[in-house]
Amino acid sequence: MRRVRHRYDCPLRWGDIDQLNHVNNVKYVDYLQEARGALLHACRTAAGVEHHHNDAYVVRRHEVTFRAPLRFRFQSVAIESWVSEIRTASFTLDHEIFEEQPDGTRTVYLRARTVLAPFVLETGMPRRLDEQERNALAPYAEPGEERSRPVLVDVPRDRAAHYPVQVRFSDLDIYRHVNNVKYFEYFQEARIGSIGRLREALRDFPRMMSVLARSDVEYVGPIVLRPRPYDCWSVISHVGTKSMVIESEITDGTDRSPEGRVLARSRVVLVFFDPETQRAVAPVAGFREALVEALGDMVTSPAAAG
């Protein structure tokens, strides 16, 4: 059977760029959301299926691997998407963001996997995929390797850094839940806040830049608009020779139940980065040891690794 992948040409915006003059990691997930919407629309159109009340999906997981920095340009970037798995009550989309040269060679900027689950819009309850939906997805089905399903663990609160997450009205989607992309922003804010607290302990060392190599987010429950901030708890679970791992979770603590329920979990791999060479680097001698000492109980696995 001929392989069919959906292609979406995604325009870039100047506001998508971060301080390294790269597309910010959160914006990639925004691009994937646009490509996903275009793919689902193409599925419905090709199958002759009209949009109906059951046609609602929630993101259960994102697994994002960053391969190369993408800089701003006026030309669109290409996104290919396809269906890598169809299950009883969920389906998985794989994505690749790339630039293709005239000779067919590609520069791949990102690879990602998104797990979506259908639900009943009126009740918010999960449901099974119906036959129409399966038929609509089938032309783009391309069974791949077994899904990785990374295990995201509970964050030990007694060793975690705390960051209050304030939801804004503009963060909400059409279902009145916080849009899946915004979770990446929340975890980014918490991550920057946690790392920022280490500056004083590392003042004797040159400032180290870092970029994301991987970001996995698991959506456990919806976040909705409320006056009180949610709680984000983060630990640096591993410090390697050129990278570190940060694990976080967002909870809905209240006055009656400060611990709260876990609503989302995140695991990111940050790589130390030289903006001049655009390559991963090992920090100068003594930096890693000073970092581990400054973290104290916050680091749960300080053993060196790549």
Question: What layout of secondary structure does this protein have?
Answer:
Layout: E1 6-10, H1 25-47, E2 57-66, E3 77-86, E4 91-100, E5 106-118, H2 131-137, E6 161-165, H3 180-196, E7 209-219, E8 230-239, E9 243-251, E10 262-274, E11 279-280, H4 287-295
Antiparallel strand pairs: 1-3, 2-5, 2-7, 3-4, 4-5, 6-8, 7-10, 8-9, 9-10, 10-11
Q: Briefly, what is this?
A:
With 306 residues, the chain is α+β, with helices and mostly antiparallel strands. It has helices spanning 25-47, 131-137, 180-196, 287-295, and strands spanning 6-10, 57-66, 77-86, 91-100, 106-118, 161-165, 209-219, 230-239, 243-251, 262-274, 279-280.
Keywords:
single chain; 306 residues; alpha+beta; Thiol Ester Dehydrase, Chain A; 32% strand; disordered C terminus; Acyl-CoA thioester hydrolase; 4-hydroxybenzoyl-CoA_TE; HotDog_dom_sf
| Relative helix content | 10-25%
How many domains comprise the coordinates? 2
Based on secondary structure, the structural category is alpha+beta
* Cα distance spanning the termini: 41 Å
User: Could you say what the CATH topology of the largest domain is called?
Assistant: Thiol Ester Dehydrase, Chain A
Can you offer a commentary on this structure?
- InterPro entries: 4-hydroxybenzoyl-CoA_TE (IPR050563), HotDog_dom_sf (IPR029069).
- This is Acyl-CoA thioester hydrolase.
- It holds the Pfam family 4HBT_2.
- There is one protein chain.
- With 306 residues, this protein is α+β, with helices and mostly antiparallel strands.
- The protein has two domains: 6-140, Thiol Ester Dehydrase, Chain A, CATH 3.10.129.10; 157-298, Roll (Thiol Ester Dehydrase, Chain A).
- 18% of the residues lie in helices and 32% in strands.
- The protein is built from four helices and eleven strands, in the order βαββββαβαβββββα.
- Strands 1, 2, 3, 4, 5, 6, 7, 8, 9, 10 and 11 form an eleven-stranded antiparallel sheet that branches.
- A hairpin with a 4-residue loop joins β10 (262-274) and β11 (279-280).
- α1 crosses α2 (131-137) and α1 (25-47) packs antiparallel against α3 (180-196).
- The longest helix has 23 residues, at 25-47.
- The radius of gyration is 20 Å and the shape is globular.
- It starts with 5 loop residues before the first strand and ends in an 11-residue tail after the last helix.
